[in-house]
Write the structure tokens for this entry.
Amino acid sequence: MKHCVVNSTGPGTKDNPARMLTEFRVRQFALIDEVSLQLSAGMTVFTGETGAGKSILVDALGAVFGARASSDWVRHGAEKTEISAVVESDDARLMALLAEQDIDIEEQLFLKRTITADGRSRAYVNGTPTPARILQQIGEICLDLHGQHEHQALLHPDFQRQIIDARLPKELSEKMVRAHEVLKQAEHALSSLKHDQNDTEQQEAWMRSELQRLQGLDIEEGIVDQLTEQVEAGRHASQIQQAAADSLALLDEGDSSARNLMAKASHAVEPVAEYHSSLGEASSLLAQMDALMSEVEPLLRDALDSSFDQAELQAVEERLMSLHEAMRRHGVDEAGLIELMQSWEEKLSHLDTAGWDEEKLRADCDAAEVAFRKCAEEISIERSREGKKLAKELRPFLDRLGLAGMKIQVEVSQQKDSGLESGGWNASGWDKLQFVASSNPGEPFRPLASIASGGELSRFVLALKGCGALVNAPQIAVFDEVDVGIGGETAWCVGELLAAMGQERQLLVVSHLPQVAACADHQVCIRKGQEGERTLTRLDRVAANKRQEEIARMLGGANEESLQHAQQMLKRGSEASPKEVAA
């Protein structure tokens, strides 16, 4: 695609101007050389001949919003492709995501994705490098990409249930979640107790025996160090007593004992201590030393008088050996033995009272199940009611979209006897919900996947969006070939419905139908051509006064008849939504 700038800004009706894609740039992407799109609110339609590359822009849009990177996207001969987008959005979820990722929050959101020829990808948000999954999460908030294959999500039961559950009172859904959580916790507690009870008698006997052995060692914090000290004292009893005796003799026996010598020194200094500060300090220290020596003497006599019985020493040694052997046996230290004993005591106590506990836990489970059943029944009734209302609301949209013969029902079946373990009971209740349809009068109702074609499913999703069934939908919606397989009045219905949706959301629509194009606020034409030996895709904004010619081309050629028909179509399309009035 040759470099060009397309400005599709125009008045349009925009209820949410702060949530839209304002700028989109693509370089070296597939057949695109370089393109820059300036976009605004309302419905912008992209038209062109088959094979011109209309869907390339949709692929590029998916890429900048985190789609899985492909080296095939890089234009042949280029080193990399670069896609960027500017989004205006005040969505609180988006602000929370940016804050969580520590990304600067600005008035506009700048997204950028580069993909090299060897498939490597880089992503940026407001200039900050970020994983591609963050772009994908932003896309989930901002972008609704409705392509030919997007309707496949509708075939999943969970998606169908979410459509109905979005219509339920929030407090009812929250009540269901709480009831499920209470039941799950009650059943888990009972299951854990039963698991403990299933321990063999041999295991319990061993645990009791081992606990008794450890309790006999009278284990307490610091016991190993204490016993080690006692053993060392007993093994060195004679050396201890001899050292105490020698020390006492030197300290307090005879004229030359340490205490006598200290007393003489103190007696010599004390009379003149007041005349010199050094002597005064020396006298004070001598008095302190005498006091300390008085404290040493009882300690030495205690060591001298101590007796060490060999039998007692042997008992302490055996106790210490038993402690070390127990620590080796269980692979823990002293603190680990204490912790192990506590856990065994708790477990054995739990087993002793298991009968009482089981009775209480069974009562808790019964009460939780009653509450769950009551809530599940209540939410099931609400789902059935909302399913019938949705089918009724869909009817006029289906009729307008060429699906008048299709009848829709929402089947809600209760799995009352399923239980938690089978997965039939969960945080949403016990319902199995599915959309079923009858394609023709008299035909039985069957699941959507078995009776609806891809085009029908795509239009069914459009009907869901049209009647507001898909709540919290992103404000930027992309419709790629949603009008495949239709024509005539049905095509007008699709175009008018899209135009009506464009009053509240920004719509980017890829279409080959003139009816759809006539309903758009803005039109961009995509053409494929050659420059030298290279194939290029061109993109041109169709000015208001040129749209008649483009619509005529889509009708088969710009002759007088087709131009007149195109003028009539644009007139009818203008009634679907306000249009730009100037080129």
Observations:
- The mean pLDDT is 81.
